[in-house]
Every structure is written in C-alpha cells, then in structure tokens.
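Long-time lurker, finally posting.

We've been working with Acyl-CoA dehydrogenase family protein (Metabacillus endolithicus) and I want a structural starting point before designing mutants. I don't trust myself to interpret raw outputs, so I'm hoping someone here can both generate the structure tokens and explain anything notable. Sequence follows.
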Amino acid sequence: MLREKKKQHYLTNDVELDEVFIPEDFNQEHEMIKNLVEKFVVKDVRPSLDRIENQQFDETVRLMKEAGVLGLISADIPEAVGGLGLGKVSATILSEKMAPARSFSITFGGQTGIGALPIAYFGTDKQKEKYLPDILSGDLITAYALTEPGAGTDAMNIKTTAVPSECSRYYILNGEKQWISNAGFAGLFIVFAKVEGDRFTAFIIEKNFDGVSIGPEEKKMGLKGSSTCSILLDNVKVPKENIIGEIGRGHIIALNVLNLGRHKIAATSLGTAKHAIELAVAYANQRKQFGQPLSSFHLIKDKIADMVIKTYVNESSIYRTAGLLEKSFNQIADQDDVASAISNLAVECSINKVMSTETLDFVVDEALQMHGGYGYMAEYEIETLYRDSRITRIFEGTNEINRLNIASALLKTYEKPIEQTKAQDGILIQEKQTLHLLKKLYHAMILSIQKHDLVMLNEEQEVAAFLADLVSSIYAIESAILRTEKVIKLSGFDRNQQKLDYTILYTHEQSQQLAIRALNLLPHLGDEETLSQLACRLVRSSQKDFVKIKRRIADIIIKEEKYRS
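Top reply, 14 upvotes:
Generated this for you. Predicted structure of Acyl-CoA dehydrogenase family protein:
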C-alpha cells in the first residue's frame, strides 16, 4: 500500500547509483517509442505546422487520429483499461520527443494527460468502457476544464455550481471555464464544480449536452495552433453517473492529475530546449560575421555551453523522476493507491516543472539572441519558439505557486538528517562535497525558519521561494552527479568527458548563486552563524577554469550541431 506520505529521502540519506533511472538506461522498448514519435513528428506533423498555426483544426484532428492509430495516445494508459501500459519512462520520452510538434504537442499533451487520465485512473468501469476507446483512438478529443475567470491559480475557489435535480438523476451545472486547451474541437470535457456550493467535484460533460457552449478562440501571444476557448455552462443537465470519483473529493483528482501534467510539461519543455539548441547552433555555424562563423566567437561559445549544461542537468532530473514514478506505479495494488503513487512524488514533479520551464526560457532567449535581428523575424522558427515557450511558466500552476507548494510540503514532512555513512570518495569528489554542503544548508535553513517562527510560508514567500530553489538545486545537482558517475562506471571517462564537464560546472555555478542568495536572506532569518559559514564555504567551492571547460563543451556541440549528452 502507498498511503503513507513520502518524504524526500535524498535530503536525509545517501542515494545509491541503482536508485536512479537515467536516459542511458533506455531499453529496446524505450528506443522504439523514441524513434516512432520522432518519425511521426518529422514526417506527419511538421509538414502541417503552417496549417495548424493558421488554426486549420481539421489538420489537428486528423493528426490526433493518426497518433491514435500508432498507439501514441494509449501509451501511458494502463493495459487493464485498454491502453498499452508502457510506463512513465516511455510516457516521458513521448512527451519530450513530441515537443518539436509545437502547438500540436499541446493538443496531444492535453489528450494524453489531463484529458484522459482522470477517467483512466479515477473513473468507474462504465465510464472507462464508454469513453476511453474513442479517447485512445483519437476519435474523441478531450479537454480539462478547471480554470475560471476569478480562480486561476486559486483552483479551489471556483464558482461553477452543481445542484441536484428534482428527480435526483442529474446535477445541474452553471458557470464559466476560461482558457481551456482543446476546447474548440473537443467532444468531452472534464469539468470541476462545487456541489451545493462547497463540495469540489469532477464531472464528465459531453459537448452535445444542452446548455454547453464554446466561446471564440482566444488571441494568444504564442501557441497559435492550439485551441484555447472559454466554456459556458447554462443549466447543463449532467447524469449523476458522470461524476468522477466521490462528491466532495474532486480535489484529489484535480491536484494529482495536475502533478502528472507538470511532469509532462517538464518533458515537453526539455524537448523544446533541445530543438532550440539545434536551431541556434546550426544558425551560428552558417552565419558569418567579420569573415568567420558566428560560432567561432567565445561569447557565443559561452552561450552554447550554458544552454547545454542546464539542459543536461534538467534532463537528468526529469528522467530520474520518471523512473521514480514508474517504480511508484508498479507498486499500485488497487485503484485507491493511484492518488498516493502520484502525490508521493508531487514535490519532484513541481521541481521538474519549475526547473524545466525556466531552463527552456533561458535556452530559447539565448538561441534567439544568437540569431540577432533575424531571430525577431517570423520566418525563423526560433521566433515562434520564443513566443510559445513563455506560457510554460504559467501552465499547470504558476512557477511561483509551485515554489510555495514545494516549500510547504518540505516543511510539513521535515526529517532531521542521517549522518552519511560512506566516505566522500570516487568520482566527482569535490562536487559530492559541495552537494553535501547544500544539504547542510537546507537543514540549517529549516531549523532557522522554525526557530524564528517563519513557518507561515504564505506570508514568508521570499523564504519559501529560496527554500524551494535550494531543494530543487539539490535534486538537480544530485541527479547529474549520479547520472555521470553511473555512466562513467559503465563505460569509462574517455567516452563521458562531456557529461563530467556539464556536472562540474553546473554544481559549482549553481551552488555559488544559491550561497549569495542565502547571504542576502540572513538579516531576515536572524543572521544565523551556521548559515553564514555554510554559504561562505559554498561561494569558495571551486577554483576550476570555467572558461576553458565551457569552450571545450561548446566546441563539441558546434561540431555536431545538436545537443549532446
């Protein structure tokens, strides 16, 4: 059983190499999924992107059906309800490799994630039998209707009402949902409403139900090829058998589906970042300034190095979480365990969402900068990626809310550290020592927060944000260290120098930035001596020649014209 709330044991214990899943662990099935999605995107979706961007949604619907035929929609759905049950690692690969499909990837993600999973994981047998076959084939497009005009991030404050009918066979729903992806062509909506004003509940609503109307397409900054509309509910009669889960417990469905959605967005953001790197490096190699390729200039190399370093660490963190999700789902004994399997990794899903979307924005911004004025022109794809990427820090809960969620969860489940039993030796010794200092800083931060009664994190939001970023960095740095150490033990140093360079640079640059932030927080925290000492040690964590290492990293990427792990 999985009911007990999981604590982030990597903050209190050493983590062994065999505990982490890394991309180098992909098996034959994973490679098949990867190749299948890449082929679908290149041969089927990308030739249609101009039409999709012009909102010729018949193309989108056609491609969704093709994805259904290929089994791509059903990959993440349990076999017991008609899916392929390929696991969370395969689902992560699918989301990442769908990213170059741009707006179509949003439609696809809405279908396979927050659209299908509420029914697949929490629906009744009759609901699954009635709706899932058409959802998985792509014949029935789904949409997830939670957001409202007055309750965006504050999802539990929705105003949509559900009142029992006089005959007790229906619930009458009234309200408005806003910014709903896929709404323009969806035939089914997962709608959240409050029964009798206060009992948060999930409903399945078909588009052809009387009283359902769809607003016009929103005029958006980016993702112009995705459908985003309002949904108006005017005395909509919904059969009581269309309630998902229990009345008053819809938050369990909403929050846990969003947790998985955050991980999927992280994977898609990773794929988009890799695509942006390829576009930027190809352009830098082709574009000449002062008689030499743009890629030969050291400031351009510095940008390329930073882009791939952050992407490698992000990738390591995302697939580590995918492995943990797969392990957690494999332990499910019955449907009641599904919520626990997801919520136990809610912190990691939020970490991935925040880190990956902010990495994406950094990468896309630098990629556009490398294009110069041409990057500002719509004929270059990087202009589209720049606009498209901005929403990812808002999707599935803003990054600010995710940071507060991370910090609050950590404070609630805090455990004192267990002294490390193994010596800090072997590969990446200095980086492991830096990681250990970061974990000490985390524990000192928690103790200081408790000592000075700063535990009301909704009030102490600056402290909460730093705590979240500190733990996110610990998770990311540890993921990179473990991945790099694991592959070096498997295939040696010579074949993995690039990974070693990524890990060394990220560990020290990120820890130094965190240390400076910690020092700036000290007057507010009470100027704790322990915190001050730890932060100062982190600032001096490395004397390596970062300039030389970054040039070495960039030269390899420039030669291969693509992201390389």
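Before you design anything, note these points.
The chain has 18 helices and ten strands.
The radius of gyration is 24 Å.
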